[in-house]
Amino acid sequence: MALITEPGKSDFIVANVSNSHNDAVAFQVKFAKDLTVAQLKSKLEILTGGCAGTMKVEVYKGETCLSTLDNNDALLGYYANSDGLRLHVIDSFASFSFDNAPVEKFELTKDQYEQRTDSVRNYLKQNRLGKYNEEEMQQAEEKRRLQAEEIQKRAELCVIGARCEVSVPGNPTRRGTIRYNGQLEGKNGHFIGIEYDEPLGKNNGSVAGKAYFSCAPNYGGFVSPLSVTVGDFPPEDFNLDDEL
What we know:
Layout: E1 12-19, E2 26-32, H1 37-48, E3 56-61, E4 64-68, H2 76-79, E5 86-90, H3 110-115, H4 120-126, H5 134-157, E6 163-166, E7 174-182, E8 191-196, E9 206-207, E10 210-211, E11 220-223, E12 228-230
Parallel strand pairs: 1-5
Antiparallel strand pairs: 1-2, 3-4, 3-5, 6-7, 6-12, 7-8, 8-11, 9-10
């Protein structure tokens, strides 16, 4: 499905690229919005030395993580639609290991790096960007606090057995029954386990081999409490026998 660009909007974004190997290294790159996430990762593989098959890419605005590019078939423009964002690549970066290379390595101590005027860190300080913008950091912290409160509030409404409607960006609205409320092993955050009325899920109530509830394959899913609305949502009737 083609990405529809609003009138006057560019078909490209200019984003900063950083990586978990070295947070002092960042650069600016122009990307087409109609790149799939898989195509983007292939480009980032060349730029960062990570592996497209294993890397995790997060979208940041300042120090706030907006989303994770976890759908390889989705278009970049649905996650990042404006300039000034940062794409952060997380991977093992095995290709960055130069310990056995027969070349002299150029290394700086922390104090030497702090004294440089041409470093990324100095640029961020001079322009009060990211973590060096106290006001922005306070706003980001307040936003995280409010979001955490909202997640807790919404999670308390998600009673096991309650009917609900699930709305996740990029997916159709789905209805189902709440089967789990809590943490997932190896995952950060709070999750609500849903048994959907239709096979529109991703699992059978298990994640990474651990069962949290049981349902038919592709009828189960786990989402943020922010994506769940609890209420009187009976199963939708898709019986079309009476249709002419």
